[in-house]
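USER: Study each token:
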Amino acid sequence: MAITLRQLTYLSALAKHRHFAHAAESVHVTQSALSQQIKELERTLGATLVERNPRGITLTATGRDVLARAKNVLAEVRDIEQVARLSMTMPAELRIGLIPTIAPYVLPHFLPLIRAQNIGMELGIREAQTDILLSELERGKLDAVVIALPSLVDGVIETPLITDHFFLAGRPQALAELPQTRLRPSEIRPDQLLLLDDGHCLADQALAACGIAPSTPIDLRASSLTTLCGLASAGFGFTLVPEIAVANELRATADLQVMRFSGRQPSRKIGLVRRSIGIKAPWFTVLEQGFKQAFELAIKPAKARPVAQQ
């Protein structure tokens, strides 16, 4: 039979009180129950740990050695329990994943906010495509991910954060040739639309927004949104830029201009996703609030831009 934590706890109590009745009272069991567990521990170890006498007990040499190690084990158990309790507030480390069309635009706002509230917490940040992040979330390598919703996977809980609208981006001269009123995504021809490489969910969202079938052959694709904006500013076509990225891409790219669509503007839902195991811990609420603030800061410059007339 294996040694149990209960037996080590009883041995520690017995060594402290030097009396079976007093030790049993301290751990809230009967004297006979405590005595039985000590005997079982001795049988398991094949050694006498306690010398019983009319005035109390005395630990044997082996008993003293076992007690020293038992105290170490019990201390480690208490540490484990404390870690679990702290994890219900804010853990010492959190591992968060974000897709590439979100991370560079939101993290500069999010990290200072979360650091100001939780200075001692260590954050691990992972940037990858949606399928990779969801796989690592499922395997426990990540605690939460920020992606476009829905995730379309089982076993997760999705918390919406923001609706991220798309702007049309291109060279000013090219945008001037489009209708300046009642601009609709469907007016963008497939051969004019610049997309991200396969695997980026933003590519599928852009196609859907413009009513283009995914099978439509499109030659110009890129691995980053910044590259797409550079191609658009050079006159190779148009691309769709998420609202959270507008301020950054306009600063980074010369000769780039953006326009809002009129009517029902194309958009994507962005959310925070966690595994559906256990209750909603406070750390998840802290992340949720922090990301919501960060997204609002990211889109603030774009909100001042007018919508095309109806």
In short: The CA atoms of residues 260 and 306 lie 7 Å apart. The chain has a mean pLDDT of 86. The longest helix spans residues 61-87.
